[in-house]
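My current task is to audit a protein record that another person submitted. I need someone to confirm that the token line plausibly describes how this chain folds. Take the sequence as given and treat only the tokens as open to question. This is what I was given:
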Amino acid sequence: MQVNNRLFEIVYILLQKKKITARELAEKFEVSTRTIYRDVETLSRANVPIYATQGKDGGIALLDRFVLNKTILSEEEQNQILFALQSMKNVSGQDEKGVLEKLSTLFNKAVSDWIKIDFSGWKKDSAQKARFDMIKKAILNKSRIEFVYYNSNGEKSKRIAEPLQIWFKDKSWYLMSYCKLKEDYRIFKISRMKEIKMLREHFERELPKEQKDKARDFKIISLKLEISKDVAYRVYDEFENEGIIKNKNGDFVVKVEYPENEWVWSYVLSFGEYAKVLSPKKAKEIIKEKLQKSLENYL
């Protein structure tokens, strides 16, 4: 259980039971009593009127005057909190569920199961879900991770990184992190990260806003593609409507922008005979060269 969730649960328990021992809390959360007393100090610094007493009738309690005031949040804010926790529950499936149920009770609201996120493919495979769970845990615990990475050219390298943020961008998941090998911020495509291990090495690095914005500054290429009506299902699945023009013969002209890297050429080639690059000229030449090299494999 993450620290923030445990702190909320402690307050919730004390609102119900009035007093409880550190040992009982430690057993419930499977942590040491020292950790529980640290949690008490954290809550106290956050102006929660919590205190601990020693002796036979001692324990941890809240001052009688303390009430968890839900009225400080508007109706919309309460809904936003519940919706956010609902999406987090679908990503992790564990820690956030208990908090979601408690807050929905506190707010006297039914929780709408409005989102379902499944990291696995159609084939049953728990590896992808396990990979995300590991990265999420490392980000929240601020623990370094070690993994094997394959770049877009298929080159293999071993990395140690400080994971900072998961991105979902253009149908793919990425990890924004600080790479110890490169001594700089790097973006890793999660599907190319293999053999991920969480290390017992803590870090304090945060993601500076200016660095995050800089990391998003990819070199972009604008493509104009002609795509056959025979793969219309891909056109509507993979492109936005405003970039699609349907010709009289049923074929399509698609305008799209992508990061200019090896992936985009592989993507265009994945359409095979059903797509043609109309512009820019540079892209047409690159695709032509790759097709010629591919043909050489069959000579």
Observations:
- The chain has a mean pLDDT of 80.
- The first strand starts at residue 19 and ends at 20.
- The CA atoms of residues 130 and 231 lie 34 Å apart.
